[in-house]
Design a protein that fits this description.
The protein is built from 5 helices and 4 strands, in the order ααβααβαββ. The chain has a two-stranded parallel sheet with strand order 1-2. 9% of the residues are buried. The longest helix is centred in the last third of the chain and has 20 residues, at 102-121. The protein starts with a helix and ends with a strand. By secondary structure, it is an alpha+beta fold. It has helices at residues 2-15, 28-35, 47-55, 65-81, 102-121; strands at residues 42-45, 86-89, 125-129, 132-137. It has a single domain, classed as Rossmann fold, CATH 3.40.50.
Length: 141
């Protein structure tokens, strides 16, 4: 995993040298509010990893349901309060078979709930399939 992360960082720096990047494993709502500006695009890559850091961390203890609900609501509120555009990337992992373990099923369910709550606050939702844009929700004009 360390090699994947290092490769991703290097590739990102080569493709987008002017990109300012801040890695935010937990405090995503605060980072959105801190960096949001009308003329600044915030890209969150990715919500699945943020959820993993909270519910299935490699070193720390996972947050409990009450704390997760608070963090999820704080993220939704930060997205609604952002003064500039916010683009979020995530993985749709609920399209396949259900995982066997209770922990994995809980993760899939919580990611689905997070997607639903965020999509309700967004003007646009796009599903990418094989590099093809599939519109899910478009702002009413």
């Amino acid at each position: 995993m360390r090699l994947r992360i290092a490769h991703h960082r290097l590739e990102r720096a080569e493709r987008l040298p002017q990109l300012e990047c801040e890695e935010v494993p937990i405090d995503l709502p605060q980072a959105i509010l801190r960096h949001s500006a009308p003329d600044r695009l915030i890209v969150i890559d990715c919500l699945t990893l943020w959820l993993t850091n909270l519910l299935m961390p490699s070193e720390d203890e996972a947050v409990d349901d009450r704390e997760w609900n608070l963090k999820r609501e704080a993220l939704c509120d930060a997205i609604s309060e952002a003064s500039g555009p916010v683009l979020m990337v995530s993985n749709e992992i609920g399209l396949g078979t259900s995982p066997m373990s209770p922990e994995a099923r809980h993760f899939v369910d919580e990611l689905g709930r997070l997607h639903q709550l965020i999509a309700a606050r967004c003007d646009r939702v796009t599903l990418m399939v094989a590099g093809i844009e599939v519109p899910v929700k478009r702002e009413a004009r």
